Automatic annotation (TrEMBL):
Residues 1-35 are annotated as: Disordered. It comes from Miscanthus lutarioriparius. Gene3D superfamilies: Hypothetical protein, similar to alpha- acetolactate decarboxylase, domain 2. PANTHER family: AT-HOOK MOTIF NUCLEAR-LOCALIZED PROTEIN 15, OS01G0246601 PROTEIN. It comes from the Eukaryota. The chain crosses the membrane at residues 100-125, 137-160. One of its GO terms (biological process) is vegetative to reproductive phase transition of meristem. This is PPC domain-containing protein.
Length: 204
């Protein structure tokens, strides 16, 4: 019985499997050597876990760590207990041992708004009965009551852009003071909580 190819006079060629070209490409890609990055980018951010011992100021230790490596430091968080915390605005001294809930700030390797002299670090602390209090921390006002672990991201390539000051900004800064005599006021957690409750009641 004649086949269809014999009747038409054409010879039927065997088909190549479709997977042959793919297998060759896979073998070619596997034979290529891997690309290995031997050097780390100097401007890349690095993560560090800094442990501050008891009795040392947390901000001063982080600032010294950044200056020693000539890098900027971005504080992402912290865990531990501190004592006698000094807040800048309003100027308060919180007596007693408190747990750190959140810590954030930035230290630049060059003199500027985020340097150790004018840090913008803010902290939130856990007080008794579930109360939370925090604000901007003065340098030297965050003493570790025990080992405090700080999560820090360091960087090198940071560009400083000085923007023009808005009208009335200097006058607003001059009106913000620590105290009538320029000193910090010492208070307890109970007094601070009562003051906050009075302010909330007056606003409501």
């Amino acid at each position: 019985m004649a086949t269809a190819s014999a009747m038409t006079g054409h010879q039927q060629l065997p088909r190549r499997p479709a997977s042959c070209s793919n297998s060759k490409q896979n073998r070619a890609s596997k034979s290529k050597p891997p690309v290995v990055i031997a050097h780390e980018c100097p401007s890349a951010m690095r993560a560090h876990v800094v442990e501050v011992p008891a009795g040392r100021d947390v901000l001063s230790c982080v600032s010294a760590f950044a200056r020693r490596g000539r890098r900027g430091a971005l504080v992402l968080g912290a865990a531990g207990h501190v004592t006698d915390v000094v807040l800048r605005e309003p100027a308060l001294v919180l007596r007693g041992t408190m747990e750190i809930l959140s810590l954030a700030g930035c230290f630049f390797p060059f003199p500027g708004p985020g340097s150790a002299a004018a840090t913008g670090t803010a902290v939130f602390l856990a007080g008794p009965r579930g109360s939370v209090l925090g604000g901007g921390v003065a340098l030297g006002g965050l003493v570790a009551a025990g080992p405090v672990v700080v999560m820090v991201a360091t960087f090198v390539a940071a560009a400083l852009d000085r923007l023009p000051l808005a009208k009335g900004q200097e006058a607003g800064k001059a009106q913000q003071g620590c105290d009538v005599h320029g000193h910090h006021r010492a208070c307890s957690w109970a007094a601070v909580c009562r003051k906050q409750q009075q302010q909330l009641g007056a606003n409501s």
